Amino acid sequence: MSFLKATSVLSLTAVLALGACTDPALLDPNDPYSKTKQGALIGGLIGAGIGAATSDDDKAETIIGSAIAGAAVGGLIGNQLDKQAAELRQQLDDDIGIVNTGDRLIVSLPNDITFDTDSAVVRSGLKDDLSKLASSMQKYPDTSVEVIGHTDSDGDAAYNMGLSQRRANAVADELQANGVPYNRLRTSGRGEDQPIGSNLTPEGKAQNRRVEIVVIPTT
């Protein structure tokens, strides 16, 4: 296959994959398997593109095989995330946010239920939820876990950066104490650099004070 033709196939595959991401049928919030379908479709399209780009014109079976393999991997990842997200929503406190993006889960711990003001000590009331979250991570071991601390913009930016890192470390320590292996965990503090609400209102500041636990499939 010529370089030009291979490039054209990959470009078309990328367009189709992006279209799949925005297909309303695949993003239906009432469909508990929407992420599974989305993962399978995108995996299949990408697999087909790779197969087309690396095969000769007379080897269509390579394209088909790549598409099937890509769909299988994408579907397995999507199915795992669908199941894990549904289980966590049943198990965890309603104040804890759980977002399934299709390729990862983002578990958001609001600061008001996680830490006292200016503290990096995890509140005792949250420890049961973190234990359940750790059990879920052990049930689904083929993932890496990023723990990211965030603050609002009040106070000194350098201090906020350090506080967000200490809080991320404290949450990661709880997960490790409950059985999540150290080599699956990474921590970082973002301070006030990644707000999700306005720092001009009390409500927005409350949204920004959070720790996010990002669960990313590794296979």
Structure description:
The structure is a single chain. By secondary structure, this protein is of the alpha+beta class. The protein is 53% helix and 14% strand. The protein is built from 7 helices and 5 strands. It has helices at residues 3-21, 34-54, 60-91, 111-114, 127-139, 157-177, 202-208; strands at residues 97-100, 105-110, 143-150, 185-189, 210-217. Strands 1-2-5-3-4 form a 5-stranded mixed beta sheet. Helix 5 (127-139) packs across helix 6. The radius of gyration is 21 Å and the shape is globular. Residues 3-18 have low confidence and may be disordered.
The total of helices stands at 7
What is the rounded Rg?
21 Å
Q: Give the proportion of residues in helices.
A: 40-55%
Low-pLDDT stretches: 3-18
Number of strands: 5
Class of secondary structure makeup: alpha+beta
Biggest sheet, strands in spatial order?
A: 1-2-5-3-4
End-to-end gap: 30 Å
Mean pLDDT: 81
Order of helices and strands: HHHEEHHEHEHE
Q: In one word, what is the shape? A: globular
Strand percentage:
5-15%
Quaternary arrangement of the chains shown? single chain
Biggest sheet record: 5 strands, mixed
